[in-house]
Amino acid sequence: MYIVRRAVFETLKVFLFGIICSVIFSLMIYRDSALPNPVVCFILNLASLMLFLFITFKSWSRLYLDSFTPAEYFIPTLISFVIYTLISGFLYHNRFFMYMWLFLPTRFLEPMLKAGYDYVSFIAAQLAMFALIFLTPRFTVGRK
Description:
By secondary structure, this protein is mostly helical. Helices cover 75% and strands 0% of the residues. Helix 1 crosses helix 3 (70-93) and helix 2 (38-66) runs parallel beside helix 5 (119-140). It is elongated, with a radius of gyration of 16 Å. The mean pLDDT is 90.
């Protein structure tokens, strides 16, 4: 029951981190001077992804330090990753109108890609988040 509760809590935190990073940078992107410039939009989207990954890393490193077994870390993080990926992927595929305000970090490459290849941004962001699951213990080991 403890692991399930941690998984729910971590899932909620990942969605909250994504929304926070999305709102902050969407407000900057929708300014008149940023929206028409793809380089500025790319930099702001990339900053949103980096902030999202950093906050998620800090959260997951705290979870790793508090866990006594690998399962107490890997199960909640993998579940939160899968749920985040499924929901954001479904909404991305269906072009949900509020997507930019909820999942902006997954759109970091879109200003630089051609129209038919915008899904590459989503895949790259999800791969980075998946890699973060396994990199977090490696970078946190020295403190445990």
